[in-house]
Amino acid sequence: MTSSDGDTGREARADGPTDDRPTVERAESVLHDHVVAAAPRSRRRRIVRRVAVGLGVLTLVLALAIGGSAWYLTDRYAGNIERVGDVFADLDPASRPAPVTPEGQTSAEPATFLLVGSDTRADIAGGELPDARSDAIMIARLSGDRQHVQVVSIPRDSWVDIPGYGMNKINAAYSFGGPALLVQTVEHLTGVRIDHYAAISFEGLISMTDALGGVDVEVAATTSWGPYTFTQGMNHLNGDQARWYVGQRYDLPGGDFDRVRRQQNYLRSMFTKLFQQGTFSSAGQLDGVLLAVTSSIAVDDSLGNGTLLSLALSARGVTPDGIDFFTAPVLGTGTEGAASVVYLDTTTAERMWGYLQSDSLGQNADEFSDEALGAVPN
């Protein structure tokens, strides 16, 4: 694990007076001092929740932000978020796409994350995840107006050109060269520059479900998977049920495409739950959620505490209504040798990537209704 940057380091606190208050109480005090001191009492709880949610924009930008801002800066939570080293260090700047160029004036620079979700999470060392699998690959864009997020899932079996290796499934890039080669492959595919990398354990995020008191997902048609049956309509899922829900691919009409949609639907539902009145009934419950989130995330080592805090605070205006989920445009499926693969629709995808490059995908979302996450996926 790479140590975080020094802008809020332990040394700065070591020389000061000892604070013997419980961790959660100290965090509440810090957050109050930084964010809500000037707000009327009736607004403070809402502000705390919105700032806490802000970091989740990064994981899905969804998951980190529950830890949000000053909460994240405490030793209890910051120590849980691991760093992946050297993701961007060896990439040739001359061969990388240009930075995003927004169509209009924005309040901040757009931020683009490559999110990699894995069913398992091992200790991170040497700039790669030892399990060498990428079960979910998503581009997440925090817009320049800091009010919107677009998440585009790239099917893991997509048949693409991997620099230095030729045509292969996109998740093979992760096996061949870890996060750095996957970033290079996604940039080569899309022409969109990736600013940051985040590895997310769905297994770990699902552990949040119980801490949140369960998550509601709506199912289009009754299906069974493992020990559970998900009935048509609204289902209230605990952690173990959520694990089976996001893992199902068989007996779904769209197979692995529907699995991607379920991953997105779960994240959407989880994010919505964070905004519901009364979700956090106690400091202890919030503490449990923060620990679950931060232990499920690893980010590239360019994201120090100060940078992450600044980004989280800038994204505190994002709400569930401002988040759009898409799947990269697909022509169909086929085989390459013995492998089953997904062929991307390069013509439609070029328009999608172009809108990302100009930070205008949200304004043009209606052009991609077939690729957008529906209200009630399978």
What would you note in describing this structure?
With 378 residues, this protein is α+β, with helices and mostly antiparallel strands. It has a single domain, classed as Nucleotidyltransferase, domain 5. The protein is built from 12 helices and 15 strands. It has helices spanning 10-14, 23-36, 41-54, 69-73, 75-78, 170-190, 202-211, 239-247, 256-275, 283-294, 305-314, 346-357, and strands spanning 82-84, 111-118, 136-142, 149-153, 159-162, 166-169, 196-201, 215-219, 223-225, 228-230, 233-237, 297-300, 323-327, 330-336, 339-344. It has a 7-stranded mixed sheet with strand order 1-12-7-2-3-4-13, sandwiched between helices. Strands 5-6 form a two-stranded antiparallel ribbon. Helix 7 (202-211) runs antiparallel to helix 8 (239-247) and helix 8 packs antiparallel against helix 9. Residues 1-39, 44-74 and 120-132 have low confidence and may be disordered.
Give a brief outline of the structure.
The chain is an alpha+beta fold. It has 12 helices and 15 strands.
CATH fold assignment: Nucleotidyltransferase, domain 5
Topology as a string of helices (H) and strands (E): HHHHHEEEEEEHEHEEEEHHHEHEEEH
- Count of DSSP-assigned helices: 12
Low-confidence segments, ≥5 residues, pLDDT <50?
Answer: 1-39, 44-74, 120-132
Task: State the CATH class.
Answer: Alpha Beta
List the SSEs and their pairings.
Layout (H helix, E strand, L loop, with lengths): L9 H5 L8 H14 L4 H14 L14 H5 L1 H4 L3 E3 L26 E8 L17 E7 L6 E5 L5 E4 L3 E4 H21 L5 E6 H10 L3 E5 L3 E3 L2 E3 L2 E5 L1 H9 L8 H20 L7 H12 L2 E4 L4 H10 L8 E5 L2 E7 L2 E6 L1 H12 L21
Parallel strand pairs: 1-12, 2-7, 4-13
Antiparallel strand pairs: 2-3, 3-4, 5-6, 7-12, 8-11, 9-10, 14-15
Helix pairs in contact: 2-3, 3-11, 7-8, 7-10, 8-9
